[in-house]
Amino acid sequence: MMRSTSIVVCSLLLAIACRGDVDQAAVSKAFDSLIVALDRGDLDMLWGLSDPETRGRFDDLARRIMETEALIDAHLPEDQREEARSAIGRRLVGPAGDGRSLFAAVIDPGKLAAPEDPNARKVARIEVAADQARVELASGDVMPFTRAPDGTWRTRLFLKGLDDLPGIVTLHDNLATIRHNVRVLTGEAPPAAPSPAPQAP
Fold first, then answer.
1. Domain locations in the chain as residue ranges
2. 185 vs 64, which has greater pLDDT?
3. Which of 53, 76, 89, 160 is such that its CA lies 20 to 30 A from the CA of 61?
């Protein structure tokens, strides 16, 4: 009986180790794809490699822009609409009005490049814990990855610092200001102290 239990335990440990090897190989492949996409400045590839949370954040912001444009068209005087659309970054989401277009506008392909330092391209260690992974590079940098619902590994690189980008901060402020102004115009909110004029994102 003891021997059977030992065999079962050993088999489980072996299965876990094999799964870990498979995950590490998959994360390593995702990292290699990321480097290729950065080298090419391929925004479609980078969007595809971005994790669901990153894509969701861009999708949500694009949705807010489109919803605010609908409020602008419905409630603001016609001679104020174009300026308001510019303030909320309507052009950033393109004709489709989606997160993918916003991603392409925010992630400047002209500034994209994989690191030139060979050590920043060399994987030193990969740590996988449940659905999160950390790729430690020989340069000391760390790349975060997460497992998507389809089992593939995606990068969280473009989520880091997103809300601190000056253009994104201004965009959030402008969306809030224009939504408030529309609520005042429609009587849904009491007038407050004058809001600062929207700025170009």
1. 1-41+113-144, 50-112+161-201
2. 64
3. 76
